[in-house]
Amino acid sequence: MNENLPSDISTFLTPDEEVIKTANDKKWDIYITNKRVFLKAGGFFGKEIVETPYHHISSIEYKKENPIPSMLIGGVCIVFAVISNQLLEAIPIFRTISVLSLLISAILAITGLAVIILALLKSPTLKLHIIGRKPITISSKIEELIRISRTNKNE
What we know:
Elements (H helix, E strand, L loop, with lengths): L6 H4 L8 E6 L3 E6 L2 E8 L2 E8 L3 E7 L4 H22 L2 H5 L1 H24 L3 E6 L5 E4 L4 H9 L3
Helix pairs in contact: 2-4
């Protein structure tokens, strides 16, 4: 699996080190080896590579936010969208500009729907606590990292 690695990662590998798994996150490219974890972020304006042996991972925090508060906010926006036409009709200037009241209602409804959808789609995250640096947040889709970290912790 080491043959298709980017050169900026493969140069750090020791002769007996092998990449077990690779994954991508919103920010990080993750390379899990039999000895340590490499996290690579970057693009046009520069890059950052973090490598840590498993015994330097002090803890892994799993976090899933409760979607209900965001869903309630989205629901309130939709309710306001439904009743906003009646409320805006009470204001004289909006009686003459009915398109404006419809536009406000549509924006409220779309915003509410978007907030609800985003709350439902938000994925859990893992926060790697590495000795000597600030925690790094990554997507939970690489939960295998927890298993590998626990297995290799004492090596």
